[in-house]
Amino acid sequence: MKANCQRGFSLIEMMIASAILLIGVAGVLLSLPNAEQGVAAGAMAGRAALYARERLDSLGALDTRELTGRVRLEPYEDRPEGLFWRRWWVLDAASEPEIDDDEELAETLAEQGLTPADFDLPRGFLRLKVRLDWTPPGGAPRQLEVGRLAEAGPATGAPRAGE
């Protein structure tokens, strides 16, 4: 009696293996555009962080008198690269508006990105706040806020002690 030894794969086995391989390759190829968008969004977020930090550092490098002279509720703003909207504020506790009965003012401040907590400051300090807004390609709008406290100088034009 002769033993029937098969070697290799049958046609059905090859078709099943090819189908499984095709599904895997298609999955990888379909995920590439999402990965590309993720990388682009991450790169924009990194640039936004650099722009925010750059502005915060430049504000922090100012003389305390110059900082005190820049206190105002309306934001300063620019548009780096035309892709980002950068706004920044120099705030002190005295600049907090009375918004108890003025809903329109409260809404305007909220739209600008200001909250009552922004004015809750230790005596003699200013809040430096920077906010960036941007929309990555094919993504949802994003925003980033950074801030810090800075020592306030005397009011503009007021002499310092010992001067």
Report on the structure:
By secondary structure, the protein is of the alpha+beta class. The chain has one domain (about 10-150). It has three helices and four strands. The protein has helices at about 10-60, 65-70, 105-110; strands at about 75-80, 85-90, 125-135, 140-150. It has a four-stranded antiparallel sheet. A hairpin with a 6-residue loop joins strand 1 (about 75-80) and strand 2. It is elongated. Residues about 155-163 have low confidence and may be disordered.
Short description:
By secondary structure, the protein is α+β, with helices and mostly antiparallel strands.
Overall 3D form: elongated
In spatial order, strands of the major sheet run 1-2-3-4
Number of domains: 1
Structural class: alpha+beta
What proportion strand?
Answer: 15-25%
SSE topology string: HHEEHEE
DSSP, total strands: 4
CA-CA gap between termini: 117 Å
Number of helices: 3
Residue windows where pLDDT falls under 50 for at least 5 positions: 156-163
Helical fraction equals 25-40%
Task: Sketch the major β-sheet.
Answer: 4 strands, antiparallel
Our Rg estimate from Cα atoms comes to 29 Å
Q: Quote the average pLDDT.
A: 83
